[in-house]
Structure formats: structure tokens, C-alpha cells
């Protein structure tokens, strides 16, 4: 049995640890939008430590203008602007406990996309109650990668019109739900894989007996 546990536990725990880390990144959705569009973006901020997150700052990517935001109960909103009055970054700061361990919070805002196709990177800074800061500014594959949105060529629409705005909002929520479902299914898939590998390890151990 000792041999079985030596094979079983590292595999089982290692894969569960990987699944939890894989789902703990700060992400901005949608991950694809069109040039010149007024897009509703949503940033998901999970807590990956044993202390609450009390503040969150997101930098506006080059060429993208942040115009308005959706109020979140228990959070204050502020901006940092350049000399031309354009928003350089937005900050949400908790008025209460913040985002507790094991929880996540979503913040939504409207931005006007660049007129040129390409990729925009969302550099973010997550502040914890113990004074530590996680900088989500790395490239893909790093420990703390920034989220990327692909801006593709497409017809720009005036989303200030009431009907178009409602349609756009519905599309944003649909994409948000789809992305959330995909993100939340990853830990489950990895968990199933870990169980299968553990069973294989048990079979191998019994055969060696």
C-alpha cells in the first residue's frame, strides 16, 4: 500500500494543483473584438492567496479609450488621465472586506477599440490586504501573464444608439458567459484526467506485486 500511495498521491495532488493555478489568472473578455467598435469589456479578478484583494488597477492598452464603467457595490472607482484627458488606467478599491479567498469579482467597462487591427495587452495590478501586489504584466506562459484581446478588422457600429447598444450588451454578456464556462470547465477536465492517471498508477502497482 505504501508503494501505491507513493505513486498515487504525487500524481493526484500535482494535477489538482495545476488545475487550480490554471484557472487563477486575471482575464479580460471578450478576447476578440473589432476595430473602432465600442466594446463592453469585463475583467475577472480571482483571489489566489489566503488574504483578500482590496484594490485592482487596469491600464488602458495603447490606442484603446476607456469611456465608462459599471458601478460595483462595495467598490469605489477612479481614473488616472494623461495631459489630453484620456484615461491611462482605472482603479477599483474596496470600501469593505474586498474579494475574499476562494472568491472572484468581475468589473465591466466600455472602451473604444483602436482603428487598427492587432493585439492589445491588458496590464493589471492586484493589491492584497497584506500589502503584496501581483503584477499581471507578463507574456503568455509566464507566472503572471497579462490578458490579450485580438482586434480584428470589421465594420464599426455606433453603439450610442439605444437599439444597437442593447444588442451589443447582449452580445457581450453572451461572450462573457461562454468564456466563463470554458474557464470553469478546465479544472474539471484536469481533475478527471488526474483520476484516470491515478487509476492507471494503481493498476501498475498491483501488477508489480
Explained architecture:
- Helix 1 (2-22) packs antiparallel against helix 2.
- It is globular and about 70 Å long.
- The protein has 209 residues and is α+β, with helices and mostly antiparallel strands.
- It is 33% helix and 34% strand.
- The protein has 2 helices and 12 strands.
- The strands form 3 sheets. It has a 5-stranded antiparallel sheet with strand order 6-7-4-10-11, with no helix packed on it. Strands 1-3-8-5 form a 4-stranded antiparallel sheet, with helices on one face.
- The chain has a single domain (26-183), classed as Immunoglobulin-like (Sandwich).
Give descriptors for this structure.
209 residues; alpha+beta; Immunoglobulin-like; 2 helices
Distance between the termini: 10 Å
**What summary fits the major beta sheet?**
5 strands, antiparallel
Helical content (DSSP H or I, runs of 4+) = 25-40%
Strand order of the largest sheet: 6-7-4-10-11
Number of strand elements = 12
Q: Percent of residues in beta strands?
A: 25-35%
Low-confidence stretches: 4-22, 157-166
Tertiary shape: globular
Order of helices and strands: HEEEEEEEEEEEEH
Helix- and strand-based class?
Answer: alpha+beta
Q: How large, in whole angstroms, is the Cα Rg?
A: 21 Å
Summarize the structure.
Helices cover 33% and strands 34% of the residues. The protein has 209 residues and is an alpha+beta fold.
Amino acid at each position: 500500500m505504501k508503494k501505491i500511495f507513493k505513486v498515487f498521491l504525487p500524481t493526484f495532488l500535482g494535477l489538482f494543483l495545476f488545475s487550480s493555478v490554471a484557472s487563477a489568472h486575471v482575464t479580460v473578455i471578450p478576447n476578440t473584438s473589432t476595430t473602432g467598435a465600442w466594446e463592453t469589456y469585463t475583467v475577472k479578478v480571482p483571489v489566489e492567496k489566503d488574504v483578500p484583494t482590496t484594490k485592482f488597477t487596469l491600464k488602458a492598452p495603447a490606442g484603446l479609450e476607456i469611456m465608462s464603467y459599471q458601478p460595483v457595490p462595495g467598490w469605489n472607482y477612479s481614473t488616472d488621465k494623461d495631459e489630453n484627458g484620456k484615461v491611462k488606467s482605472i482603479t477599483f478599491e474596496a470600501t469593505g472586506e474586498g474579494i475574499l479567498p476562494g472568491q472572484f469579482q468581475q468589473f465591466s467597462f466600455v472602451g473604444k477599440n483602436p482603428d487598427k487591427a492587432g493585439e492589445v495587452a491588458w496590464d493589471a495590478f492586484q493589491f492584497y490586504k497584506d500589502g503584496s501586489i501581483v503584477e499581471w504584466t507578463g507574456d503568455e506562459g509566464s507566472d503572471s501573464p497579462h490578458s490579450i484581446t485580438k482586434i480584428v478588422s470589421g465594420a464599426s457600429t455606433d453603439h450610442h444608439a439605444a437599439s444597437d447598444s442593447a444588442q451589443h450588451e447582449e452580445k457581450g454578456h453572451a461572450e462573457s458567459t461562454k468564456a466563463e464556462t470554458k474557464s470553469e470547465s478546465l479544472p474539471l477536465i484536469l481533475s478527471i484526467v488526474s483520476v484516470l492517471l491515478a487509476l492507471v498508477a494503481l493498476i501498475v502497482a498491483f501488477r508489480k506485486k
